[in-house]
């Protein structure tokens, strides 16, 4: 017995001894940053030789609960790389895809794999704010720029140096939908149904309630806030409760699968009033799932295919239609844009040094992308107008997304 | 809450419960025979839904043909799973079969992601099920009535099978005591295969009614319903078919009512449901209609 | 081989391992370090599940909930006050969370104790049941914990989760805690408690008859296992540097189960091996997932496709269940005696060859 205790104490002593100098992991990070600082000197350094192939990483949830959005985003990234911009600074661009399985741990491993193993110069992704938040920590420590496509939760870029995004953030989106509801629909009361497990939905609902309350004079004008979950299929209880309160509008920022079912069930329960949502509704599958029930619903989003914003938008719509045979969705557009933003920054930087790319990303102003003229602000988010789309009956009889209006930031 | 709202909630609950009931019966049958929580049941359910979808989407079969074909196809899938993943482990400790079930579940899901992609697919809803009916101010789909009728029909058929056929008698014997049944000359392998076939067929029917009600297919759509239906089966008394039906309806109604009565804490819905389950198991472990099965040492 | 020699060999072996880890921390790239850290954390979780199942024969699927407690407690205690105020967006953090900012060691201790407490609370009712019922009840408890975490915005920030968790987990911490866990569990297993656990695993009724208070022993095993599960959770949170309730679904409990089973239920060495296989394979097989990997077979090109990786792992898992039922190590442990006998066998065959 004594022997074992001796061994244990010896081990603990060794642990402490070797622990002490490396108790904080920062020394490792510091050395990395130091070498980078040395490279970026005030006088323009001799251009470092470019690698033969410029690798860009893309990490998305291709399997798991968020696979729907992840696969759509990848469509856009891949399409842009294959058919629009496959070269920068005279070198071919290779996009390396890493699946993060909609899982936080996997997201960090995927990011680490891309940065350390594949030696990518920048990363694009991911769908899902919680995954971006997790993997962002890895990118921050490693000092590699990441451009997010669609995560709208402010926490993704807040306080971070290396994470950027091409989309707007939820505080803006909540304002947009509140404004639409109050000014366009003339709503005086509202009910909100949120996905309690989804940071996007919870954050967006909170902002909507605040802004709606501001615009109508009283937060109590939001008559109820009920919750469902991603993966739920039945919302009849929440809907019955909300409908009975007779709101002027129902706001339900779920992912398109749940949203489609929710809208369908709302109509089945006899609710004929307006239903509105956020950018996660923007997928043709939403109409597929909801069917005729979604006629008339509206939502805020990043991009509208029926009416090109820029030349690139037109090209994107054409190529997407040609490649996939169906109408483009917002996530593919954002995937494309994130890729283009990163590549454009590389071009402007004239090198693949992370710090140089990062500075160019910060300096982005009025860059013409698929989703509009994009400027990156000081919190690394894109400042651009949001688009409100509505599902309407098209001339050929089918249902489709129709552009209603743009709402600019305040 | 007004009375009419209450009735509407109740109707919603019955409608939801009906879809749970069918799958719960499949679970309970397998458990009754093998004492196995078939974690893969939910994924067989998922496969059934996709078979039906592709039957209509790719092979352009009329919906009733596709639905009818799916039932034997899914039954075969269930039997294949049993043959490949559970039969070899018949003599192993029970935990192995459970783990194998988890493994098969993951396998089927991953196959699903590979073959069908994660993008949600819209399931076609035949118009006969989509009629909106209303009694007073209570609205429901014609589908609800169909689901209840089909669930009851399935119950009747299962009872007939279990109590009026030779195979049914063999099934009951095996579930009572597998060793004695073997000694009596019953072909255990066939009985078990048959049980899986019936269970999977029921899962397929459940999948079709589910997909008509919730027409959005994703490869992991079977995980949560699978778990819920297992809970329903346990609630009603695992091993008891009417118990599973009762459990399914109770779970459906309970889920709706929790949100209906306590909308402010609708975010806690699952916590309440699970807590209720834990209470039931602690106070009456055999479930509501079940009999306590002695665990032999 | 004398016991003393074995102990000295173990001590020397551990010393070498830890020196290697120190070297790795400073010289390997962060990706490889991450993998090594994850292996250690998964191994700790597997060891804790082994204590419940392999040693005592109880089936628990509630690990995810206990891990969540450990991870959240430590995160909330260590994140800077300023950052907390910023990212608690739905409701501001309540006191004392809004003012606490502790260093790693005390947070680790407190968080692990919190997890142990929850393990005790979970075990008390759950252990009254057996087999499948216990599995479902523990699963239920874990989900209840998760739902509460998801809704208590002022404590946990709900679904938004906690971020900017300081990266305190190093290879020495994670593998050190693993060594600690193995040491404690092995000691427990070799003691009279361990014999009681094994008796309970084999036949509960008989154990009760000879005077072992079955429930108390089961609860002890469960609580200690929860301690390690929580410890693993703390290390995890400080590795991933963020946490949210969706990371702790029953899928995590399944993952730990898979790791434990692959390595061998009842074998501590197996827990490490299972963890190495699971984490290692998941990373090694990444090329299978990327469309840029392509192999040419018989003239056709097969491209990688997302999801192939997990497919291979699930097939492997089913194979192991079917053919290596007891896992790779079964319930055997690594021992110096075994290694020596293997070396002797090799040496002997070499000498007989030379003689010929």
What does this protein look like?
With 410 residues, chain A is an alpha/beta fold. Chain A has 2 domains: 186 residues, Rossmann fold; 152 residues, Response regulator (Rossmann fold, 3-Layer(aba) Sandwich). Helices cover 44% and strands 19% of the residues of chain A. In chain A, the strands form 3 sheets. In chain A, strands 8-7-9-10-11-15-16 form a 7-stranded mixed β-sheet, sandwiched between helices. The longest helix of chain A has 20 residues. About 6% of the residues of chain A have low confidence. Chain B has a single domain, classed as ABC transporter involved in vitamin B12 uptake, BtuC (Orthogonal Bundle), CATH 1.10.3470. Chain B has a two-stranded antiparallel sheet with strand order 1-4. In chain B, strands 2-3 form a two-stranded antiparallel sheet. By secondary structure, chain C is mostly helical. Chain C has a domain of 248 residues: Orthogonal Bundle (ABC transporter involved in vitamin B12 uptake, BtuC). Chain C contains 15 helices and 4 strands. In chain C, the strands form 2 sheets. In chain C, strands 1-2 form a two-stranded antiparallel sheet. In chain C, helix 2 runs antiparallel to helix 13. The relative contact order of chain C is 0.16. The chains are: A alpha/beta (410), B mainly alpha (297), C mainly alpha (356). Chains in contact: A-B, A-C, B-C. The interface between A and C is large, with 56 and 63 residues.
